[in-house]
Amino acid sequence: VMLQALAIVKQKCPRPRSNIGKLFVLIVVSIVYSYYTTAKINLMDISILHKVKEAITSQENFNSKESYRKQLAEMISSVLREIQPLGGNKSIINEEWANKLAAVVEKLDPRISLLEKSTWDYSARLKKMGPAPKSPGIKRHVCPEVYFGNQYNHPWNQHGMEPEQCDYVPAFKTVLTAVLPATRWTSERVNFIAGQIRLSYDIPIVAIVASKAGIDKNIKNFAIKEIGKDDDEAVFMNEVIGDIKTPYVLLATNMMHFNNQSSLQRLVRVLDEIKHVQVAGGSARDLEGFWINGCIQQRMAIYEAVYAMGYYYSKFECMYCDDLLTPFVTTVQLIKDMPFTKGLKDKVLFRDWFATVKISGSLTLSCPDVMFYVSEHPRMTEEEWKTMAQIWHLEKISSYDENVYTFSCESIGITCTNPLNIISSYLLPPCCKSIMEKYMSYIVDYGRDNNLPFELQSGSALGAMKMGGYLPWDYDTDFVFECKDFNKWMEANKVLRPKGCNLIVIGQNKYMQMNCHYFFLELYCHTYNTTSQQYLPEAYQNMPTTIKYANRTVVSSANPGLHSRNRIGFDNLKHAAHWRTLKVTKEGAARGGYDNPGRWNKCKDSKHHSCLDKYPGDGSLPFVRPFLNL
């Protein structure tokens, strides 16, 4: 059943947010699939549910509030209690179990709905259904919509979804305020936009301008806020929005025109009815007539960010997005809770704000039927992206316009001076990793140039076996060589010292350490005067086993997989923080050196995109191909 459900999982949840999300979706879809195919339940299904319960109650694997975790655990437990007595027996899956588990999925990610709704769950009602009843728990600020069908206003279809007549919503002027971030607009443009909005809506309008000169003060309910030369743009905007009395605010970024194509009621209606959504925007048409939906997906991982236009999920004919390139409506409270960052302005200000909104768990929608008229579609310069890189510690950014920008560690404020402190919570930045790999190449090249046998050892061998390179939570590099060559290896200082590294003897004729600026490499010798290649067939002993490491081939143990299994012990393919950052019990040491493989230390800054505990404790692809969707 689990295997049969895989195809459905890919269709329903191509990009779940975490391993737990994948696990839940797989189980839910499996059980739903079982129900509809009258599949049978067995002991394997019971054991899987036990694992789900354990995963949900684990502090390390589920970093939500404790009360929320307990709520989800109880939902799983209630299904488990009903299923458990049936373990090993032939029983038809109960539809109620499937619905309960589907509810858990929807709680974990509200964008995914696997439930069959018992009530009408669409953006509008059909004309024959009559007026929409008042919905318990929904405070409506605008009237619901009714759909008049696809022949209404045919063939143009610029009408069809129309607001109902209702008498139980407040006046729209008490619902939403339009804010014009107009510090770089001409006074004529400010007056025109304010006038156009006033033709459609009797709502408060606030313009943030560099100068009041030329602004029409006769426009009704129009406030002009002049920013001082020394005022911070972000702080000033926070203060202006903080004083707004309506619950919703329109941020009319880059606006050039306004008419009834820009339905503000539609955006407020979406925010009213979909509680997990806090921001709603629309599409945009520029001065050349080019239209975009404005919906951006953004992901940050391993000191890299990827922005792409498009969507994975939708609801009420709106796209779920991580960022918007268009004007948008949000709540005043959200901006009070997550104010714009001091020192930022224009496009960078909004990229940063949407990134903050995303990590807070609030969701964003773009409704492409709501079209705004803008002067141009936002394009970020390299310097603007560099500011984002400095704020969010990003060495590489792939922009939504398909440009790619790379930044040095120095230019974005990343330092490699204390790698042990970094790896106690975070993945090692790629620039730091490349420094270590460069140091490693000094040893590899010296050994090859001087015909000195050596092999990767310990964590370095494990990294090569699992990921084809340096583990991004490692602290050093390990080699083993033959003791008879000890003095020859010490002669490497002639090559190393001009490069800023130095070999020192720690254990006489046994162990040496290569110290460089930020990292060190460990070289051990053994007295057997042979390498592990002796375990290869005699015909292969003169051709040592090599393995990919940092984009080159390096001599490894004769059997890299066997070496790592025996050297690291149980669950060697699962990940664990560096031993210098852990406390290991005697029992853990007996199992190979780790108490809880697959578990990470709790991160110091849970919002950082490269916290170790944001990544699975198993598998290589999330680290070597973090943006790969399979």
Task: Outline the structure in words.
The chain is α/β, with parallel strands linked by helices and 630 residues long. Helix content is 33%, strand content 19%. The chain contains 20 helices and 26 strands. Strands 4, 5, 6, 7, 8, 9, 10, 13, 14, 16 and 17 form an 11-stranded mixed beta sheet that branches. Strand 4, helix 6 (187-200) and strand 5 form a beta-alpha-beta unit. Helix 1 packs across helix 2 (19-36), helix 2 packs antiparallel against helix 3 (43-57) and helix 3 packs antiparallel against helix 4. The radius of gyration is 30 Å and the shape is elongated. The two termini are 20 Å apart. The model is unreliable at 1-19, 32-46 and 53-64 (pLDDT under 50).
Which key phrases capture this entry?
630 residues, alpha/beta, 11-stranded mixed beta sheet, 5-stranded mixed beta sheet, 26 strands, elongated, disordered N terminus
